[in-house]
């Protein structure tokens, strides 16, 4: 019990769910003895049934995306049976008509399916997906300036290789060596005729 308490405190340190004003109970099923609620960015599923495990139990949630197990009372480290796979990804499905809450699943716009073992509490968090960076395309493919390549100033452009500024219609890149990757562009000085 002490280990679970420590894990719960660590979970709050990471997600600050105890102090969150977002507190929504989306499912209280007396027959199945399940309570589902959101607190902060976490989705909690309590199964109080003494013997029934529900596979594919549908859980409503606010945000779409991928969810993973954040805390599991059935984990072996807490003296549980280890019935919940922590490496599974739970992907959401949209529910109802967008903008019409009464058509949603348990008044939640998205849902995902889980395994809910008897006598357990499992908390799920939404995984923040990071866009994959294109390989070998550099910063230009992202529409951003790679600070290691160039530094744009009002008076000119510094060459990343030697730090010298260029102006006029000269091209700046990573030192003039075409084998180096960088962003080539033209910086026009206001004192030159731009014909």
UniProtKB/TrEMBL annotation:
<dbReference type="Pfam" id="PF02806">
    <property type="entry name" value="Alpha-amylase_C"/>
</dbReference>
<feature type="region of interest" description="Disordered">
    <location>
        <begin position="158"/>
        <end position="195"/>
    </location>
</feature>
<protein>
    <recommendedName>
        <fullName>Alpha-amylase/branching enzyme C-terminal all beta domain-containing protein</fullName>
    </recommendedName>
</protein>
<dbReference type="GO" id="GO:0043169">
    <property type="term" value="F:cation binding"/>
</dbReference>
<feature type="domain" description="Alpha-amylase/branching enzyme C-terminal all beta">
    <location>
        <begin position="27"/>
        <end position="126"/>
    </location>
</feature>
<dbReference type="InterPro" id="IPR013780">
    <property type="entry name" value="Glyco_hydro_b"/>
</dbReference>
<dbReference type="GO" id="GO:0003844">
    <property type="term" value="F:1,4-alpha-glucan branching enzyme activity"/>
</dbReference>
<dbReference type="InterPro" id="IPR006048">
    <property type="entry name" value="A-amylase/branching_C"/>
</dbReference>
<dbReference type="GO" id="GO:0005737">
    <property type="term" value="C:cytoplasm"/>
</dbReference>
<feature type="compositionally biased region" description="Polar residues">
    <location>
        <begin position="166"/>
        <end position="177"/>
    </location>
</feature>
<dbReference type="GO" id="GO:0000272">
    <property type="term" value="P:polysaccharide catabolic process"/>
</dbReference>
């Amino acid at each position: 019990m002490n280990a679970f308490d420590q894990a719960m405190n660590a979970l709050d340190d990471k997600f600050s769910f105890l102090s969150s004003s977002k507190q929504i109970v989306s499912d209280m099923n007396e027959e199945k003895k399940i309570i589902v609620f959101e607190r902060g960015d976490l989705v909690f599923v309590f199964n109080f049934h003494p013997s029934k495990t529900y596979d594919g139990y549908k859980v409503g949630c606010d945000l779409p995306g991928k969810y993973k197990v954040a805390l599991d009372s059935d984990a072996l480290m807490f003296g549980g049976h280890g019935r919940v796979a922590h490496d599974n990804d739970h992907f959401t499905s949209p529910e109802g008509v967008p903008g019409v809450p009464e058509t949603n699943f348990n008044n939640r716009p998205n849902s995902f399916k889980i395994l809910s073992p008897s006598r357990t509490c499992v908390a799920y968090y939404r995984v923040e997906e990071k866009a994959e960076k294109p390989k070998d395309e550099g910063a230009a493919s992202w529409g951003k300036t790679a600070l290691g390549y160039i530094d744009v100033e009002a008076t000119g452009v510094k060459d990343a290789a030697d730090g010298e500024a260029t102006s006029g219609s000269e091209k700046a890149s990573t030192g003039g060596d075409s084998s180096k990757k960088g962003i080539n562009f033209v910086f026009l000085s206001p004192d030159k005729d731009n014909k």
